[in-house]
Amino acid sequence: MIDEEISNLTAIDTFIRQKQPFAVYRIPGEKTPRLLTQAGGTVRLIYDLKDLNGQRGFVIAPFRVSETCPIVLIQPDQSGQPLPMDVDTDGEQEKAGQTQGQETFLNTCTDKYAACFHTFINALRDETFDKLVLSRELVIGQMPDFSPSSVFRAACKRYIHSYIYLCYTPQTGIWLGSTPEIILSGEKDGWNTVALAGTQPLQDGKLPQAWDEKNRKEQDYVASYIRRQLLSLGIRSTENGPYPAYAGALSHLKTDFHFSLKDNKDLGNLLKVLHPTPAVCGLPKEEAYQFILENEGYDRRYYSGFIGWLDPDGRTDLYVNLRCMHIEDEQLTLYAGGGLLASSELDDEWLETEKKLQTMKRLIAY
Ligand SMILES: C=C(O[C@H]1C=CC=C(C(=O)O)[C@@H]1O)C(=O)O
């Protein structure tokens, strides 16, 4: 590491120690991360997604907005400034391929997960729901030499196709993640969202081409939902997909949606219609959302919400907050979930969450 890099990494750890709101993020396809900080004033707290209309800043939105989990907007003095860091990589395929087969997973699920799975699967098999996403948290002790900025750098190097971020505000605490899923990106008259669902490990580091019925159906529910929600706002989109896409050592099926907007000041309304998509919630949407809140057995907080830079007059890059962790003094809380259909099997779904958790776990030295 060159001196400049070390001082950039140290700067990030200093913001955390001094409890200064900041976000550092790396957009897929870009080499250099960007850093933004808010030195003066307090971050803005928002309690309804539509109040993001016309706002500019780094957004950290929860799965469910509450008094203790508001939407937080970091309003920096300047938009994200390049933060030189050696995050060069030999390619995600190669790295992911190297780790495959060497990592071990907990093959037996916890009693708590099994109990939730049965509650969820019964509601799918009696056709109350078409799809439900069941997630869980994993708490691990923090090593004394744990450095959030070093993990951020390692994630940038390893996961070139994902959005990597590390952020802190007094209201959210410290979060770090590597997510493959755009909720809304674009600028001027060119906007994008994606339907991302269905999971398989990479095969010898390459994208799997064969996808079974369950995975295709799971993703198709998300694509149909997005199409419907966009149309409900009079937005006509063009589509590309579904096709297999990279996400660390995993692959998901993805459909891209491209569209233009009449008024970029109403991005909050659009986000309110999209979030939470059936990639993290379920169908029918409102009922599935309530069911998850009542039956999942823990609070997702900012996991499966969304994060990123919002700017109606410039560029916006917002991502669903997946493959992430909440960093506290003594512990790290990792999150992962998976889409269940009536045909889902307990052991397969558990293993899928184990593999998703590995996205963060493999970055942390034990
Ligand atoms: C809910 C998560 O992933 C979503 C995104 C892609 C594939 C998914 C799946 O196959 O279940 C999930 O819908 C997660 O990573 O916690």
Task: Give a structural overview.
There is one protein chain. The protein is globular. It has one domain (3-361): Anthranilate synthase (4-Layer Sandwich). The protein has eight helices and 18 strands. The strands form two sheets. A nine-stranded antiparallel β-sheet has the order 6-2-1-8-9-17-18-7-14, with helices on one face. It has a nine-stranded antiparallel β-sheet with strand order 3-5-4-15-16-10-11-13-12. It has helices at residues 3-17, 92-99, 111-125, 148-158, 213-232, 267-274, 285-295, 346-361; strands at residues 22-26, 34-37, 44-46, 57-61, 71-74, 81-82, 131-141, 163-169, 173-179, 182-187, 190-201, 238-247, 250-259, 282-283, 306-310, 316-320, 324-327, 331-340. Residues 133, 135, 181, 196-199, 252, 279-280, 322-323, 336-339, 356 line the site of ligand ISC.
